[in-house]
């Protein structure tokens, strides 16, 4: 079981970040959940990265897997907070918030008006 769970979108920064962790930390303590694969090579290059397709059942599997793994993880690192469904999962399980760390990526700073948690205030 991983102690640190990383949840983030599939962007150009997450795979290099995983490589940085692999080179500098104990990679066996980290697990990454990514909603969609960037490409097959990146998905198979790292055993600790799980990615899911865009189909309905795959998305359900992604969110249910995330909810279960979040319960078991010691720390949860959220790479960007762009996913409304993930925000809703955290809303339904507020006890998880004490072990969550939000890594703010560019979109969190530059496009705040597009974030659902700001729009709905």
Characterization of the model:
With 121 residues, the chain is α/β, with parallel strands linked by helices. It has a single domain (4-119), classed as Glycogen Phosphorylase B (Rossmann fold), CATH 3.40.50. It has 6 helices and 5 strands; from the N terminus they run βαβαβαβαβαα. It has a 5-stranded parallel beta sheet, with helices on both faces. Strand 1, helix 1 and strand 2 (30-34) form a beta-alpha-beta unit. It is globular. The N and C termini lie far apart (37 Å).
Keywords:
alpha/beta, Rossmann fold, five-stranded parallel β-sheet, about 120 residues, globular
For the sheet with most strands, the description reads: 5 strands, parallel
Alpha carbon gyration radius: 14 Å
Helix and strand sequence: EHEHEHEHEHH
CATH class: Alpha Beta
CATH architecture: 3-Layer(aba) Sandwich
Number of strands: 5
The protein's oligomeric status is single chain
| Measured distance between first and last alpha carbons | 37 Å
The number of domains? 1
The CATH homology group name: Glycogen Phosphorylase B
Query: Within the largest sheet, what's the order of strands?
Result: 3-2-1-4-5
General form = globular
Approximate helicity band: 40-55%
The DSSP helix count reads 6
List the uncertain runs: none
Q: What is the average per-residue confidence, as pLDDT, rounded to a whole number?
A: 81
Range of strand content: 15-25%
CATH topology: Rossmann fold
Structural class by helix and strand composition: alpha/beta
